[in-house]
Amino acid sequence: MNTAFIHASQIKKRGSEETSEPLQLLKLQRNMSGKSRHLNIASNNLKISIMTKEIKWWQVVLAAIVVSTLGAFSTGVGKKNQRKLYERKLKQAPWAPPAKLFGPAWMVNNYFLLRALKQLLENKNIPGKKKLLLKQAAIWAIFFSFGYVYFQKKSPLLAAIWTLADAWLGVSSFTNALRSNKRLAFDYLPLLAWTGYAGTVAVYQALKNPDSFLNTPAVTK
After folding, report:
1. DSSP structural state of residue 77
2. Which of 44, 107, 132, 164 is most enclosed, with most CB atoms within 10 A?
3. Residue 33: its pLDDT value, please?
4. Segment 175-209, tens digit of pLDDT
C-alpha cells in the first residue's frame, strides 16, 4: 500500500511539473515580448530625436567654408594660374568682376544654398521638395565641375554653358520655392543674382575668345 501511495505521488508530481513547464514558457515569452517592446520604443524615440535635432547656424557656416574650400581645390590649378587665365589670357567684359571677388561671392552663395538644403531636409511639408532636392544636386555638380572645364580644359564655351545652367537652376528653384515657402525662396536669391550677372560675363568670354578644348574660333573680335 505504501508502494502504491509513493507511485501515485510521483505521478502527481510529474503531472504538476509537466503542466508548470508551459506556464513558465508563457511567462518567459511575455517577459521577452515586453522587453522587446520597450527596446523598440526606445529605438524609435532615439531615431525621432536624431531626425528632429536642428542643425545650428554655425554648422551651416562651417559647412559653407568646407564646401567652398573643396570647390577651390577641385579646380586642380593654383590661384596664381587661375588669375593669370582670367585676367591676362582671356578677353573679359568691361563689367567683369576682379578675380579675387569670386571666392567671397561663392562663400556667400554656398552658405545660403546650404541653408536652403537644411530647410528642405528638416521640413517634410514643402511642396515640390523632391524637385528642389534634385536641383540642389545639379547646382552642386556644376559648382564642383566648373573649375575643371574652365581652368583645366580652358573652355570659355563650356564655362558659359555651365554658368547659364546654374543661373537657370537658380531661377527655377527660386520660383518653385516661392509658391510655398518665401523664406526658402529667399535663400536662392544670392545664387540667382550672382549667376545672372556672371552669365553675362561668361557669354562675353565665349564670344570673344577661341576655345582650345572644343577647337572653335572666337565668334566676334
Report:
1. S
2. 132
3. 58
4. 999 988 999 999 999 999 999 999 999 999 999 99
15-52 pLDDT, tens digit each:
554 455 555 655 656 665 555 555 555 555 544 444 44
pLDDT bin (cut points 50, 70, 90) of residue 73 is confident
Q: Are 104 and 111 in contact (CB under 8 A)?
A: no
- Cα separation, 105 vs 4, in Å, equals 101
Fold (CATH) for 54-208: Ferritin (1.20.1260)
Per 3-state DSSP, what percentage of the chain is helix, strand, and coil (rounded to 5)? 80, 0, 20
**How far apart are the C-alpha atoms of 110 and 65, rounded to whole Å?**
8
CA 177 to each of CA 112, 119, 130, 188: distance values in angstroms, whole numbers, following the listed order: 14, 11, 12, 9
For residues 214 and 158, the answer to whether their CB atoms sit within 8 Å is: yes
**Domain residue spans in the chain?**
1-53, 54-208
Residue with cell string 509537466? 18
Cβ pair 196, 170 in contact under 8 A: yes
Q: Which amino acid is at 76?
A: G
Q: Are 113 and 193 in contact (CB under 8 A)?
A: no
Please tell me the pTM assigned to this model. Answer: 0.74
Beta bridge partners of 216: 211
Nearest Cα residue to 93 out of 215, 192, 199, 219: 199
